Amino acid sequence: MNKPLAAADHAEARPYHHGDLRRALILAAERVLEREGPQALSLRAVAREAGVSPAAPYHHFKDKSDLLLAIAGAGFEALGEAIKAAVERDDSQKMTTIGCAYVKFARDNPALYRVMYDCSRNEDAMPGHGEGEEKEHSGLKLVEKSMIRAGVDPNDEMGLKLACITAWCAAHGVAEMVGFAQFKPMIEALGGEDQFIEALIARSCSVAEPRV
Q1: Please, what is the angle between helix 95-108 and helix 139-149, to 10°?
Q2: Rounded Cα–Cα distance for residues 192 and 184 (Å)
Q3: Local mean pLDDT, 10-residue blocks, the chain (212 residues)
Q4: What is the pLDDT of residues 71-122, one digit of tens each?
Q5: DSSP letters of 124-189?
Q6: Which of 20, 138, 202, 205 is spaced 20 to 30 A from 177 at the CA atom?
């Protein structure tokens, strides 16, 4: 299972004692989010989860919206790490590997995934792109590298962007629909949800992934 920052750093909720308070608050917010859903998320609830005073979060986040943006940013970081780990495991950088890692992350972290996209709808950059140094290690950058290896001309800026967006949207579509009840017979026939995801991604990649 792919774990976001909170789950990776804190197997169990523990009160904050020292160090980076902003990060501790984001970790606490992720725990509340996955345990109780976005309706339970508030700066007061996050402070209680982190073991700090109710006023402490306001030193780092002006309101709940600001906190949600920070959670979304951490979520896209974790998604990039999950994709990177999957690519390194099979040393292929194929789009099927990237797509499956993406969908499984979304499946394993549903509340976080929803916040990530709710917060990114009106942003200027593509979801998962990152900024500065982070951009070079983002999930979308790994998609770009895979596309170039598959034969997309790196000098064709628009063509490369379109190829990356097509692949990203394909994985997003699978992530949104994989849990639909009408797919249960197919999932059973293929031997499980992981196999179903892999079959869908493989077929979407036959369209999204250029051939050399």
Answers
A1: 160
A2: 9
A3: 48 52 93 89 94 93 91 91 88 79 94 90 63 64 87 92 90 93 95 94 68 44
A4: 999 999 999 999 989 888 876 557 889 999 999 999 999 999 999 988 888 6
A5: SSPTT--SHHHHTTSHHHHHHHHHHHTT--TT-HHHHHHHHHHHHHHHHHHHHHTT-GGGHHHHHH
A6: 138
Paired tokens of 118 = 């709710």
Predicted local confidence at residue 187, as pLDDT = 96
CB-CB contact of 49 with 13 (8 Å): yes
CB atoms under 10 Å from CB of 168, counted, come to 21
Other CB atoms closer than 10 Å to residue 175's CB: what's the count?
A: 20
Model pLDDT, residue 26: 94
Look up residue 106 and give its two tokens.
């979304």
Provide the residue count of the chain: 212
Contact 84, 141 (CB under 8 A): no
DSSP 60: T
CA 175 to chain centre: 11
Alpha carbons 66 and 81: distance in angstroms, whole number? 23
Give residue 92's pLDDT.
Answer: 59
Sign of the Cα pseudo-torsion (10, 15, 20, 26, in order): positive
What pLDDT score was predicted for residue 160? 92
What's the rounded Cα separation, in Å, for the pair 75 and 136? 16
